Each structure stands twice: as structure tokens, then as C-alpha cells.
Amino acid sequence: MMNFNFNSIEPIYLQVSEQIEDAIFTGTFAEGERVPSTTEISKQYHINPATVLKGMNLLVAADLLEKRRGLGMFVKSGAQERVTQRRQDMFYKNYIVSLVQEAQKLGLTEEQLWQLIQRGWNKDERTKD
């Protein structure tokens, strides 16, 4: 089920794209499976069909969906892996690089950084802070 925030500054077409991508990532939409049509989504959520199509076309351009004439949009083979790889790359760029830079500014050794990461990874230790 999709959930749109019509009060967000993020355009609806991007929300459509992100939510379908997330469904591919989590396996809700499996590879080879048909995703809801632009008409189905637009009617169910009261969104302009052109807006929905714009979001879906982003996923076609990202090689996650393919159009099958007369049948609809389908999740492409390897789409889940491509989403996972892209998200890992973004995680590295948005979090890891700055984490390491900040650790270096603090004078932490690699071992000390690993210890902090392990502490954060361990649920029991996180709840103590």
C-alpha cells in the first residue's frame, strides 16, 4: 500500500517513484511481476495519471521497470539487486565518508571507530545510552 504526503515539499511523482522502488527493494513487487498501472494508482490515490506516469518513467530510466505493450509495467530482472547496490553506494557516500572524516577529526584510531560501530550495532548497548 502506498502512502502519499500531499503537504510535502517533495513532488508526488518522486514519492510514487520512491515508493515503488522501495517495494521492489523489499520484495513486495518481485522481479517479473506486474506493478499497478498508472490508472489504478491514480484512481486509488486520487493523483493525476500524468504524475504517476512521470514517477514510473523514472523507474524505467533507472532500469527497474519495463513497459510491455498492452500489458503494463513489470519489474525487470535484476532490479532488486540494482536498487540494493545503488542504496549501498548512497549509504557509503552520505554516511560512511563523513563518519570516517569525523572520526579522524576526533583523533580516533580505526580500532576505536570499529569499537564504536560494534557498540552501536549491539542493541543492548544502544539502549544503555
H and E order: HHHEEHHH
Quaternary organisation: single chain
- Largest sheet strand order: 1-2
Q: What's the number of extended β-strand segments?
A: 2
- Domains, number: 2
**Which CATH top level class of the largest domain fits?**
Mainly Alpha
Q: What would you say the CATH architecture of the largest domain is?
A: Orthogonal Bundle
Mean pLDDT: 92
User: Which class of secondary structure composition applies to the elements?
Assistant: mainly alpha
Which of globular, elongated, flat, extended, rod-shaped describes the shape? elongated
Q: Could you name the ranges where pLDDT drops below 50 across 5 or more consecutive residues? A: none
What gap, in angstroms, lies between the N and C termini? 35 Å
The radius of gyration over CA amounts to: 20 Å
Report the sheet-strand fraction.
5-15%
Instruction: Tell me the CATH topology of the largest domain.
Output: Arc Repressor Mutant, subunit A
The major sheet is characterized as: 2 strands, antiparallel
Helical run tally: 6
**CATH-wise, what's the superfamily of the largest domain?**
Winged helix-like DNA-binding domain superfamily/Winged helix DNA-binding domain
Percent helix, as a range, is 55-70%
Plain-language structure description:
The mean pLDDT is 92. This protein folds into 2 domains: 12-77, Orthogonal Bundle (Arc Repressor Mutant, subunit A); 92-128. The protein has 6 helices and 2 strands, in the order αααββααα. By secondary structure, the protein is mostly helical. A two-stranded antiparallel sheet has the order 1-2. The chain is elongated and about 60 Å long. It has helices at residues 12-26, 38-45, 49-61, 79-105, 110-121, 123-128, and strands spanning 65-68, 72-75.
